[in-house]
Design a protein that fits this description.
The complex is a heterodimer of chains A (954) and B (233).
Chain A lengths: L6 H26 L33 H12 L7 E7 L4 H5 L8 H6 L1 H9 L2 E7 L6 H10 L22 H7 L4 E6 L1 H5 L6 E5 L9 H7 L2 H6 L5 E6 L1 H9 L6 H21 L8 E6 L15 H4 E7 L8 H5 L2 E3 L3 H8 L22 H20 L12 H6 L16 H23 L6 H25 L5 H31 L14 H16 L3 H5 L1 H22 L9 H23 L12 H8 L1 H25 L5 H24 L8 H28 L7 H27 L5 H19 L6 H18 L23 H12 L1 H20 L10 H33 L6 H50 L1
Parallel strand pairs in A: 1-5, 1-6, 2-8, 3-4, 3-5
Antiparallel strand pairs in A: 2-7, 6-7
Helix pairs in contact in A: 1-20, 1-34, 16-18, 16-19, 18-19, 20-34, 21-23, 23-24, 23-31, 24-30, 24-31, 25-26, 26-27, 26-29, 26-30, 27-28, 27-29, 28-29, 28-35, 29-30, 29-33, 29-35, 30-31, 30-33, 31-33, 31-34, 33-34, 33-35, 34-35
Chain B lengths: L1 H10 L13 H24 L9 H22 L9 H25 L9 H23 L3 H9 L5 H21 L16 H33 L1
Classes of the chains: A mainly alpha (954), B mainly alpha (233).
Organism (chain A): Brassica oleracea var. oleracea
InterPro entries (chain A): Alkaline_phosphatase_core_sf, Phosphodiest/P_Trfase, PIG-G_N, PIGG/GPI7, PIGG/GPI7_C
Membrane topology (chain A): Multi-pass membrane protein
């Protein structure tokens, strides 16, 4: 190494690299995930005029009296409105399959029998239902936004799902407010956050207590009788959360599901009978719409893009459409965004500006012919306006205002052309066809009696245009600002290069030192190192395939097991039979077998991924065998975790008071966790105060013992008979094992009971690998650290995580939190999801301590603190950072390349969020490791210099 | 593979014996050709006599494959065994059967560690697959080396084979293992092909790797001989 790199310089460069990465990442994220709608402003009366005609002087419509505005809209739309009131009932998480069945089959018997009234409405033709396909991410807030604004929201909405913000874009509720509607909202308070101050009356319930499945709905229904008797509202929104909570706690087949469906059915009956059939009050005609925001998977989760999650319900009751058979009423497909234009046209308000939905076919059948065509025309105009904003003006040349209004264009004639060519031209052509056919129908209507054929042709032409335009617009939302993306990616690549260069220079320095025994001059890349690099390469390559992203856990498990086998091979290779067997070899072989067995068990614990989730695995098997087995597993794992942890604490042989205090605190924590599990997890739906208090006490104790231990231990470790490095090593080992034990105990509290087994296995893996590294297997230090990182990622998937958002454990994120706090529950959720990678990163402290202890005989004791930190701490920090930055950069490039892929929103984008979270996790872990080790080493150095001072003085 | 030595060393520790005469490259080629031929015969029998293939009935096909290949391998390699004076033919056959079973055990353990599914419906498939793998990897070595741990360790762990016989055992064995490892790759993909099931594509991979290993070992022998003659000159 020609240029010596000092510790300070290394630190500064690393931090600079990380900052560069963060900046690049944030630029990329904001560039890639659309956050802004394409059109600003609110639709007004201009939406009833042709988009290509000169806009009329813009009157300030907000100053018009609402009632006048309503009449103005009604007049210019030319569609008679039959309804005065709307009840929108949102059932959170109800899959469309529950009510409408699947693939033309009626729903399952349990579900069908739970909703007798709704089914009878469907059978008699009073109701018409649609499978409304929701766009991912299937979480509540983006879906509500999509339903009322018709726009496909940005993907980052998920990130804000816990931090709901007011919806400022043009939306239906805003339009209703402008025409003077009075609105009442009962249910999920997301609505109130989306539309603050908009409701005349509201009673929000929180989606905070996921385990509450009863009271949350009672709080909505208790107002219902009053509201149904009132006649002062025009829009009543009911948002029931209970069904989603039932799903989260027990899955689709939860025993509570049938009664919940029955409850929903009763509410539908009450509303139908009181508000619609019974006309004793002069309330006007009411339309009842039952929708769900998203579906749920077999386990009751949602967030992803599987059919089960995106299959939501859209049920119109009281539409008097002319459908009479059951199949016709249930076997319809639509998109969730289609609700917006349909409601806007049904109730005579302008369609919101950024809507990409189209009129739901079959909902306007009661209208007269010209009204139906007019409705389609209005929808087409609105979509055309949206297209105009995204297409070059040159495409619209040759179309004058007159051309479309009269249906006669110069140079085009009145014939219908076959539409071909590129997508944009095709769209314009389809629109022209529709307009022309509409014009023909209009001109002939008065003269000829047989206009039915013309009418149908115009209808078909409009539908063709609407469908194509809607698809095109939906795909256009993925348009990206190229400059920002390029800037972000290049910043990330630069930081990756910085990290790699730092790593390489440090690597050279560490291994070129002649003093160091690990290195020899004939040092060559050996099998493990090649393999570790190959894993990185394989991971990068596999990211390009959507199915490999979905099934990423197979790669991690396969690679980690292969690594264990390679270790075994290496160990066997180093045997020499002339000397016979030694206990050291046995020890190593035993550790490797422990790693292999626990790795296999971890792999079999959760059948993750997307495509093969139905395969049997240990967790399913345990849950089928009965809850008591899960409890036993939890009990045994807790005891073993505490036992192993205490064993590790005392393994150093230091029997100091501080260590004993720590051990005592950990035992108490373990006891409290068992108490918590035994008493409060038994009743699934209790929101007991005691549970919260216990959990808080556990948090407090754990943070005190881990943080306090890390602060105090270095001061109390001074021993005269041991070398300075050995003391520091002992101290770091103790701190590290306290961290690991503390983290394991915390996870035992937070994770689902079924995951306590994997926590134990992960702890065993950590102990076994620390055993291996202390036994000097002659594996390169970088390889060991990289392997720890890989094991952490394999464990991440073993805890049931996957690359879809659906597997995030929401229920655990509220343990020990008494009031709603976005930040706290977010942190808890992060800790649950990234339990395993953080655990392995924390174990690096232990690893460094172990190394220091083993190499304390080496001649490092005379080097200064900076040099020591650089040599001992540099690699453990840089290796995870390097691996992560390579993966992050590679995946960013992959995402950029895949931006037009069919699965970009359902597979690649969620994975990107996970990659970003892994980056954060790596930063946090490395930061903790660096701070702890630096603190402990500097304290020990300080103490040593002081004692030396004393010796010199005396 | 690697577990083998560990298990063995507990039971018996015999000392390596003097080396028998070596075999020419043409001889190796003919051995490989016979091996390949009988592998093909196995497939032919499965397809034409029993009307099954790997996809439709993996257990039966694998059974046919290994039960046809096994005697062939034993007969061929027992001509090449070390210390033919001390070790009678019947003893060689006996220890080859022992090698078949213990090798199958090792291979099955390795496969399960790497994630092969465990379950009643997979059990016969795993057993037959591991027996076939054992025929590729363990049986030739047991026939030739017997239980000489030092030979096993030198050839398989240290990878320092000497002479053509050891080369022709080592390279195809590793070829089969590495091929099987790569063969597992398509399994998680959602192509929904019937051959993605365990252990079909792993079998294809192992057989492919075995054949590639044979070719590589032939090339190696030719190369080494040329090298040696150059050195001598």
């Amino acid at each position: 190494m020609s240029t010596e790199m000092t510790c300070t310089r290394l630190t500064i460069l690393t931090v600079a690299g990380i900052f560069l990465q963060i900046i690049g990442l944030s630029i990329f994220v904001f560039g890639f995930f659309p956050v802004k709608p394409t059109l600003s402003g609110v639709s007004g009366s201009e939406s009833y005029r042709h988009p290509l005609c000169d806009p009329a002087p813009n009157k300030n419509e907000s100053e018009i009296h609402p009632e006048k505005l309503r009449l103005l809209y009604q007049e210019s739309s030319g569609i008679s409105s039959r309804y005065d009131r709307l009840i929108l009932m949102v059932i959170d998480g109800l899959p469309g399959e529950f009510v409408l069945g699947k693939d033309g089959q009626p729903p399952w018997k349990v579900w069908k029998e739970s909703m007798p009234y709704t089914q009878s409405l469907l059978a008699s033709g009073d109701a018409i239902g649609y499978h409304a396909k929701a766009a991912p991410p299937t979480v509540t807030m983006p879906r509500l936004k999509a339903m009322v604004s018709g726009a496909i929201g940005g993907f980052l909405d998920v990130a804000f799902n816990f931090n709901t913000q007011a919806l400022l874009d043009d939306n239906l509720l805003g339009q209703f407010l402008r025409i003077g509607w009075k609105m009442v909202m009962l249910g999920d308070e997301t609505w109130i956050k989306l539309f603050p101050g908009l409701f005349m009356r509201h009673d929000g319930v929180s989606s905070f207590f996921v385990k509450d499945t009863v009271q949350v709905d009672k709080n909505v229904s208790r107002h219902l009788p009053n509201e149904l008797n009132n006649d002062d509202w025009n829009l009543l929104i009911l948002h029931y959360l209970g069904l989603d909570h039932v799903g989260h706690t027990g899955g689709r087949n939860s025993p509570l599901m049938a009664s919940k469906l029955k409850e929903m059915d009763d509410i539908v009956r009450t509303m139908h009978l009181k508000a619609m059939v019974d006309r004793s009050h002069d309330q006007g005609r009411t339309l009842l719409i039952v929708v769900s925001d998203h579906g749920m998977t077999e386990n009751g989760n949602h967030g992803g893009s599987s059919y089960e999650e995106t299959d939501s319900l859209m049920l119109f009751i009281g539409l008097s459409s002319n459908i009479s058979d059951y199949a016709g009423a249930t076997n319809n497909l639509a998109f969730q965004v289609d609700l917006t234009p349909t409601l806007a046209l049904l109730f005579g308000v302008p369609i919101p500006k950024n809507n990409v939905g189209v009129l739901v076919p079959g909902t306007l059948d009661y209208l007269r012919d010209f009204e139906q065509l007019r409705a389609l025309e209005l929808n087409s105009w609105q979509l055309l306006r949206l297209m105009q904003a995204q297409l070059p003006n040159s495409l619209f040349e040759g179309f004058s205002c007159k051309c479309f209004v009269d249906g006669v264009c110069e140079g085009f004639g009145t014939d219908i052309s076959e539409c071909s060519g590129d997508k944009e031209k095709q769209l314009i052509c389809l629109f022209r066809n529709a307009a022309v056919l509409h014009g023909i129908w209009k001109s002939k209507k008065l003269t000829e009696s047989s206009a039915a054929e013309d009418f149908n042709r115009a209808l078909d032409a409009y539908n063709a245009f609407l469908k194509t335009a809607s698809e095109w617009l939906a795909s256009k939302t993925t348009e990206k600002p190229v400059f920002l993306l390029g800037l972000g990616v290049s910043a990330m690549i630069l930081s990756c290069v910085v990290c790699a260069t730092l790593f390489l220079s440090l690597f050279k320095e560490v291994y070129n030192e002649p003093k160091d025994q690990v290195c020899s001059l004939n040092y060559l890349l050996n099998l493990e190192e090649v393999f570790i690099l190959a894993v990185l390469l394989i991971l990068v390559i596999s990211m390009g395939s959507s199915s490999m992203v979905e099934e990423e856990h197979y790669i991690w498990h396969f690679m980690v097991s292969t690594f264990y086998l390679l270790l075994l091979f290496k160990t066997v290779k180093s045997f020499s039979f002339s000397k016979g067997l030694n206990s050291l070899g046995e020890y190593r072989i035993g550790s490797i077998f422990l790693l292999l067995i626990s790795g296999r068990l971890l792999r079999g614990w959760h059948q993750g991924g997307v495509n093969w989730t139905y395969f049997p695995d240990i967790s399913k098997w345990l849950e089928q065998a009965g809850g008591s087995y899960v409890k036993w597993i939890q009990l045994i794992s807790s005891f073993l975790v505490i036992g192993l942890g205490l064993f590790t604490l005392f393994r150093t042989g230091s029997n100091r008071k501080s260590v004993r205090i720590q051990a005592f605190v950990f035992s108490i924590c373990g006891f409290l966790i068992l108490l918590h599990a035994w008493r409060y997890k038994g009743d699934m739906f209790g929101t007991d105060n005691g549970a919260t208090v216990t959990a808080k006490v556990i948090y407090l104790l754990l943070s005190i013992s881990a943080g306090g231990g890390a602060l105090v231990l270095p001061w109390s470790m001074l021993k005269k008979d041991k070398s300075f490095l050995a003391v520091a090593g002992d101290c770091l080992y103790l701190i590290g094992s306290a961290y690991v034990l503390c983290w394991c105990l915390l996870q035992l509290l937070l994770q689902q009971p079924i995951n306590s087994g994997p926590i134990l296995l992960l702890l065993i893996q950590i102990l076994a690998s620390s055993c291996l590294s202390s036994k000097d297997v002659h594996v390169n230090e970088c390889v060991e650290i990289a392997a720890l990182y890989y094991m952490g990622m394999a464990g991440h998937f073993a805890l049931g995580n996957s690359n879809t958002l659906a597997t995030i454990d929401v229920a655990g994120a509220f343990i020990g939190i008494s009031s709603h706090s976005t930040i706290l529950s977010g942190i808890l959720m992060f800790m649950i999801t990234y339990a395993s990678p953080l655990l392995f990163l924390l174990s690096l402290v232990m690893y460094i301590g172990e190394k220091l202890r083993n190499h304390s005989h080496l001649a490092h004791s005379d080097t200064d603190l900076g040099q020591l930190l650089k040599l001992k701490l540099g690699l453990p920090c840089l290796v995870p950072l390097c691996i992560n930055s390579i993966l992050l950069t590679a995946y960013t490039v992959v995402l950029l390349l895949m931006r037009n892929h069919l699965f970009v929103w359902s597979v690649f984008s969620p994975k990107y969020l996970y990659v970003c979270a892994t980056t954060v996790c790596t930063y946090v872990g490395v930061c903790i490791v660096a701070v702890t080790v630096a603190y402990a080493l500097s304290v020990t150095t300080f103490l040593r210099s002081k004692t030396q001072q004393l010796v010199v003085d005396s | 593979m690697k577990e083998a030595k560990k298990k063995k060393k507990k039971s018996e520790t015999s000392i390596g014996v003097s080396r028998n005469g070596s075999i020419s490259t043409v001889g190796v080629l003919s051995v490989y050709l016979i091996n390949g031929l009988f592998l093909a015969v196995g497939f032919w029998v499965a397809r034409n006599r029993f009307l099954v293939d790997l996809v439709s009935d993996p257990s039966l096909t694998l059974f046919l494959l290994w039960s046809i290949e096994f005697p062939v391998v034993v007969i061929i390699y027992s001509f090449l065994r070390k210390d033919p004076e001390k070790c009678s033919c019947s003893k060689a056959v006996g220890r080859s059967i022992l090698g078949l079973i213990s090798g199958a055990f090792m291979n099955a353990l390795g496969a399960i560690a790497l994630g092969a599914p465990i379950g009643a419906q997979y059990l016969p498939k795993t057993i037959h697959w591991s027996l076939l793998m054992s025929v590729f990897t363990f049986v030739p070595a047991t026939v030739v080396f017997g239980a000489s741990l030092t030979d096993w360790h030198r050839v398989f762990a240290s990878m320092k084979p000497s002479g053509n016989i050891e080369h022709m055992i080592l390279v195809p064995a590793y070829g089969a293992i590495i091929g099987g490892w790569f063969g597992a790759w398509p399994m998680p993909l959602d192509w929904e092909r019937p051959w993605q099931e365990w252990p079909i594509c792993v079998c294809y991979g192992a057989i492919g790797g075995y054949i590639v290993g044979q070719i590589v070992s032939l090339c190696l022998m030719l190369f080494l001989r040329k090298h040696k003659s150059l050195k001598v000159a």
